[in-house]
Amino acid sequence: MNIVCIGGGPAGLYFGLLMKKRWPQHLITVVERNLPYDTFGWGVVFSDATMENMRHWDLTTADQIQEAFNHWDDIELLFKGRTIRSGGHGFVGIGRKKLLNILQARCEELGVILKFDCDVESDLDFPDADLIIASDGINSKIRTTYENVFKPDIVTRPNRYIWLGTQRLYDAFTFDFQKTEHGWFQAHIYKFDDQTSTFIAECPEHVWLAHGLDQADQAQSIAFCEHLFADNLRGAKLMTNSRHLRGSAWLNFQRVVCEHWWLKNKHGSHVVLMGDAVHTAHFAIGSGTKLALEDAIELTRQFEIYGCEADQISKVLSNYQESRRIETLKIQNAAWNAMEWFEVCGERYCDQLEPEQFMYSMLTRSQRISHENLRLRDKAWLEGYEKWFAQRCMSETSTAVTTTPPMFTPYTLRSITLKNRVVVSPMAQYCAHDGIPTDYHLVHLGARAMGGAGMVFAEMTCVSADARITPGCPGLWNDVQTLAWKKIVDWAH
């Protein structure tokens, strides 16, 4: 099989080496527009689970990457003059350039042809290819050419961010929040080698505009960030490796989702999207490279299942798309939740929450990490937070302080204080007679009250006979109904 990978990022390189390792007879070429060792970006982040997956598919590559990794378990928050740290989160970082160099060397070792300084305009430049991997990034020319087939949904998000580096070395994944006269900025910071850390500064569009950063060049933007995060940087400078970009290099994140992932072009070649060309995940959970590598693994796995014969390629690509679509959407949904949290945290959380509660909100922002999952990761931190939360709630309601799980602490709604935060949602029963709630309602709602819920909602209750959906709907339009409801409410209280 003649395979061409357009784009020499992690997806194209890793797929090339995996296929060549299993089928040395294939002719595999990776075409990259940049020169060797000429790449953009700073560090990329993997999870421990991604590394285990890579070890299964190519131990040599995984071991080399492992040797270059910087591993950390802790997440540190700098907020309102406080520093809070939580452990057990298990991530690894590596320089993007180092990662690509490892993949390039492994490709050459296995016999993959690497062509650099070659900017491909079209998949039709390779009429003899059986399979073309369009791993040409978020601004994929191949995806754009066949936009009516791939049907990409591209959403540009409002926050502005600038991707920088610093020679100050951090021993935890660090989030630094700083307030200015126009609003909040946040920095995402992590070490990826023994000399450098990634430093991403982010803010809402209106804050970016208010500071005049739309008019700033890169040097001015870097100076602004150095001044804003000076206490954190401790004299270290910020650096950029995107001098080729015009203007300030502040970007908007683009979320990419494609309806279809592959096609056959007019030469009969199968063309399939991979990596950022087909999906993107916000840097708030650091999974873009993970998705690209796992795309390469899954497509290789499908070829192992169905074989590499020409009449099997369409089946392989269809199964690849269906398998990866589900896993990709899981990551993208988590990344979307985390991204939205960072987009609104300045106005919704930063001014309202104390550092302890802000840290909890930040750690659970993707909704993949639950309260009990935090207990598995860092039991001591969570128990300390539960104690702090209970003391705060008890003091607000003049209740004796106990060690209480958060859901069982009091909650004040205007003039009403609930004993806990358990709320029973309305459940339509359709068991009323002439709109009058019966003993069934007393037992049904009373049992929920006896169960200890702080609030029990009755079902939809109608204001007139004509407002009912069914004859069994309860109402509150006459004195008989009022007395029946009073009996239930008094018993529940």
Architecture overview:
The chain is an alpha/beta fold and 493 residues long. The chain has 2 domains: 337 residues, 3-Layer(bba) Sandwich (FAD/NAD(P)-binding domain); 70 residues, no CATH class. It is 40% helix and 22% strand. The chain contains 16 helices and 21 strands. Strands 5, 6, 10, 11, 12, 13, 14 and 15 form an 8-stranded mixed sheet that branches. The protein has a 6-stranded mixed sheet with strand order 8-2-1-9-17-16, covered by helices on one side. A 3-stranded antiparallel sheet has the order 3-7-4. The N and C termini lie far apart (75 Å). The mean pLDDT is 93.
Short description:
By secondary structure, the chain is α/β, with parallel strands linked by helices.
Topology readout:
Blueprint: E1 2-6, H1 10-22, E2 27-31, E3 43-47, H2 48-57, H3 59-68, E4 70-72, E5 75-79, E6 82-86, E7 91-95, H4 96-110, E8 113-115, E9 131-134, H5 141-145, H6 147-150, E10 152-166, E11 173-180, E12 183-191, E13 197-203, H7 205-210, H8 218-228, H9 230-233, E14 238-239, E15 251-258, E16 262-264, E17 270-273, H10 288-306, H11 313-350, H12 355-363, H13 371-377, H14 379-396, E18 411-413, E19 416-418, E20 423-424, H15 439-450, E21 455-456, H16 479-492
Parallel strand pairs: 1-2, 1-9, 2-8, 5-11, 9-17, 20-21
Antiparallel strand pairs: 3-7, 4-7, 5-6, 10-13, 10-14, 10-15, 11-12, 12-13, 16-17, 18-19
Helix pairs in contact: 1-4, 1-10, 2-3, 2-10, 3-4, 10-11, 13-14, 15-16
